[in-house]
Amino acid sequence: MSGRRVTGEPPEERAGEAPARQPAPTARFRLVFLDVDSTLVTIEGIDVLAGGNPDVAKLTEAAMNGEVPLDEVYGRRLEIIKPARAGIDALAQRYLGSLIDGAADTIAALHDAGAIVHLVTAGIEEAILPLATRLAIPPRAVHAVKVTFDANGHYAGYDRRSFLTKPGGKDLVIRDVRARTKGNAALVGDGASDLEAARAVDLFIGFGGVAIRTKVKENADVFATSMRDVRRHLLEERGTPGAD
Ligand SMILES: [Mg+2]
Predict the structure, then answer these.
(1) Looking at 35, 47, 112, 171, which residue is catalytic?
(2) Which element (helix H / strand E) includes 26?
(3) CA 192 – CA 81 distance, rounded (Å)
(4) Which of 12, 61, 230, 240 is a good FRET partner for 74, with 20 to 30 A between their CA atoms?
(5) What angle do CA 40, 38, 80 make, to 5 degrees?
């Protein structure tokens, strides 16, 4: 669990020989569930795939605001876009370049503190896995929607059985993980589907660092507008007086 760090961090940080070094933070939650689009990254994957198609953007916004049930828009958007394998690969690259400030550090600190980080998203699994790998989140902790392609790499459909394309899906996925893993849990997310899952965790952190959804802001246990805010709720920095 610990010992894996995001590549690019200075190795001397792990040496532990500097006398004035701050003690490592401790995790306030054993399980941390993170939304991806507009939370971990600054983009909405489906809108990137749509290439600015305004019909798709409108459907996404309506779903995120809780105005249209997710399952109604999910298939419709993909049927409009029909993302090919090449488009999904391009989205994977966009995800890697769109991480929100402080996210990689926060996830690395959570891992070092022994927390288990899961990604829970209605995004497309194939596009999210490379991002997860960079963050040292194993595929088994990535909960996303599979799409299928034909032999030529053209869109062939998505996993219609996935809970994550349906209302209340994140709630079910989180409860399933928690049934298998003991410990308290937090969820961080910006959208209505995250808010729906608030009752499945001990702390729901509404995230407004990319987009602020009024319904989420008003109903979240706490509301954060940056990853630094989120980190404060997830990690206790030791040796910092009054950090609590
Ligand atoms: Mg989101």
Answers:
(1) 35
(2) strand 26-27
(3) 23
(4) 230
(5) 125
Would you give the distance in Å from CA 138 to the centre of its chain? 13
Residue whose C-alpha is closest to residue 205's, from 223, 193, 218, 229:
223
39 CA from centroid of ligand 1 (Å):
5
Instruction: Please confirm, yes or no, whether 194 is among the known catalytic residues.
Output: no
Q: What are 172-218's pLDDT values in tens digits?
A: 999 999 999 999 999 999 999 999 999 999 999 999 999 999 999 99
Q: Cα(109)–Cα(228) distance, rounded to whole angstroms?
A: 12
What's the average pLDDT block by block, 10 residues per block, for the chain (244 residues)?
47 51 90 98 93 86 80 86 96 98 98 98 97 98 97 95 93 98 98 95 98 96 98 88 49
Name the one residue in this structure whose structure tokens are 């899952």.
197
Which one, of 27, 63, 32, lies nearest residue 213 by Cα? Answer: 63
| Angle at 46 (CA atoms; ends 84, 234), nearest 5 degrees | 130
> Is there a catalytic annotation at residue 37?
yes
Length of the chain: 244
pTM above threshold 0.90: no
State in Å: Cα 151 to ligand 1 middle.
Answer: 31
Sorted by where each starts, the structural domains of the chain and their CATH numbers stand as 24-236 (3.40.50.1000)
Which residue reads 């993170």 in tokens?
A: 34
Task: In whole angstroms, give the CA distance from residue 239 to residue 244.
Answer: 11
Rounded to whole angstroms, the Cα distance separating 54 from 42 reads 19
Say how many C-beta atoms besides its own lie within 10 A of residue 58's C-beta.
Answer: 12
The residue from 37, 47, 171, 190 that is catalytic is 37
